[in-house]
Write a structure and sequence with these properties.
34% of the residues lie in helices and 20% in strands. With 473 residues, the protein is of the alpha/beta class. The structure holds NADP nicotinamide-adenine-dinucleotide phosphate. NADP nicotinamide-adenine-dinucleotide phosphate binds next to helix 7.
């Protein structure tokens, strides 16, 4: 198996970076013919590169050129707008493929578990990020930016992304592919202070020096760090990235410009309660101290001092979380599909399930940058190929590529191919070019599918006209 006569059939569920890198590793094998089908519930590929990476990071988004190359390989097909568990089930995959690789990421959020978390005006980062990236799941969400104070909970790169987007002059964002709705709301924004709360110290911050540097250079914005946060002690001089600590020291020493907006980076501070009658109004914050927990990890606990700060909007950026897939084992504790080096297990500490694999955040949890998915996917593909060599994959009864097309034709006729996506891509870029923007995304699936159908009709008419004009051929 894996030859021209008996090609290996692989399904990849999820069209984000980890799925694409898994496909790439399979394509790189000269001695293997693998026919890959990639599925996504959205009509658009690229997962978090499209729906997560901040719009002012267009350079990072250009990684999609690599994915384009992978997707246009003659042994690769994309089936977008196909939801796993509804339009295509695990049993269908077993019928059609020797192996399935799950690359579904971590699309929900973790919760703080504090009173007031449900009040209007308190949102997870997933919503805010999805909103500014025109992710179809969030086109109905509205953010009220009419208040002066926003509090962001968490000290990772997502918290930094959100703070930067809230503080950036809208005219800079207007050149990007930010959602129309978000751009409009940010243009009308009256946000003046953005407070970022880290529960541990600067030395334990999860954000990277590169992202902090980006935040420090937002125009018309003071980034404020209290010098006291950088005092001697495990929080200030622990084993953090020296570049991050250096930059924080620089910020602490920077004179204030009395700029239009202020970002306060506060450390050793945890939210304990959100207060408000109709909506979020204030936040009770506990001052923390560090102690050594199990495994030597420095943990935070309240020192006994509390403070109440104004908050018109609270965004929790405390980590993403994987979602269970119908018919697929799930480790509720860790929010991942149980696995050993990418081989799916039938439960935590369980046994491998033949022909089932995982990559990316649903394999290892929501950590790491886009590039982290490359070695991660390689490990999984190595496991898959070792199982192929041992004869441990599945034996589908309809492996011929036409069989799934026939199935989808019946079950989900409006599935989207890669060629369709390329048309959508062109349309979005053209819409953007009209107003000097990188692209203007369709935020609703129906809008996207209607525009695609209209364009395809127009292309058909043009083709027919061409045939009439040159009847000889
Ligand atoms: P993250 O890096 O894991 O950061 C989560 C933060 O939330 C940590 O500071 C964590 O603090 C804090 N936290 C967790 N639970 C909390 C609680 N109950 N109360 C208060 N704080 C809490 O997660 P992320 O920011 O969502 O990013 C996910 C991954 O994507 C990361 O690997 C990140 O680097 C990557 N990413 C990269 C970029 C980029 O490269 N430009 C942009 C966005 C995201 P503790 O450390 O104390 O647990």
């Amino acid at each position: 198996m894996g030859s021209e006569e008996r090609p290996l059939r692989v399904a990849i569920v999820g069209a984000g970076p980890s799925g694409f890198y898994a496909a790439e590793h399979l394509q790189e094998r000269d001695d293997l013919i693998a026919l890959i089908d990639m599925y996504d519930r959205l009509p658009t590929p690229f997962g978090l590169v499209r729906g997560g990476v901040a719009p002012d990071h267009q350079k990072i988004k250009s990684v999609t050129r690599v994915y384009d190359r992978i997707a246009t390989h003659s042994h690769f097909r994309f089936f977008g707008n196909v939801e796993f568990g509804r339009d295509m089930t695990d049993a269908d995959l077993a019928d059609h493929y020797h192996a399935a690789i799950y690359a579904t990421g971590a699309r929900t959020d973790r919760r703080m578990g504090i009173p007031g978390e449900e009040l209007p005006g308190s949102h997870p980062a997933t919503e805010f990020v999805g909103w500014y990236n025109a992710h179809p799941d969030f086109h109905d969400v509205r953010f009220d930016l009419s208040g002066a104070h926003v509090v962001i909970v968490g000290n990772g790169n997502v918290a930094i992304d959100i703070a930067r987007i809230l503080a950036s002059p809208p005219e800079l964002l207007a050149e990007t592919d930010i959602a129309d709705e978000a751009l409009e709301a940010l243009r009308a924004s009256r946000v003046r202070t953005i407070t970022v709360l880290g529960r541990r110290g600067p030395a334990q911050a999860a954000f990277t020096a590169k992202e902090l540097k980006g935040l420090a250079s937002v125009p018309e914005t003071d980034v404020v760090v209290e010098a006291g946060a950088l005092a001697d002690g495990p929080a200030g001089v622990g084993e953090g990235d020296p570049r991050t600590l250096e930059l924080l020291r620089e910020l602490a020493a920077r004179p204030r410009m009395e700029a239009a907006r202020e970002i306060h980076l506060r450390f050793l501070a945890s939210p304990v309660e959100i207060l408000g009658t109709e909506r979020v109004e204030r936040l009770v914050v506990a001052e923390n101290e560090l102690y050594e927990g199990s495994g030597g990890r420095l943990r935070a606990r309240p020192s006994g001092r509390y403070e109440t700060i104004p908050a018109d909007l609270v965004l929790r950026a405390i980590g993403y979380r994987g979602v269970a897939l119908p018919g697929v084992p799930f480790d509720e504790g860790r929010g991942v599909i149980p696995n050993a080096g990418g081989r799916m297990l039938d439960g935590p500490e369980g046994s491998p399930i033949p022909g089932e694999y995982v990559v990316g955040w649903i394999k290892r949890g929501p950590r790491g940058i886009i590039g982290t998915n490359k070695p991660d996917a390689q490990e999984t593909v190595e496991a898959l190929l070792a199982d192929l060599a041992e004869g441990h994959l599945r034996d589908p009864y309809r492996p011929e590529p036409a069989a799934v097309v026939e199935l989808l034709g019946r079950r989900k006729p409006d599935y989207v191919t890669y060629e369709d996506w390329q048309i959508i891509d062109e349309l979005e870029r053209a819409r953007g070019a009209e107003t000097g923007r990188a692209r203007r995304k369709f935020a609703r699936i129906e809008e996207m599918l209607d525009a695609l159908a209209e364009r395809k009709d127009a292309m058909e008419v043009a083709d027919e006209a061409l045939e009439v004009e040159s009847p000889e051929g």
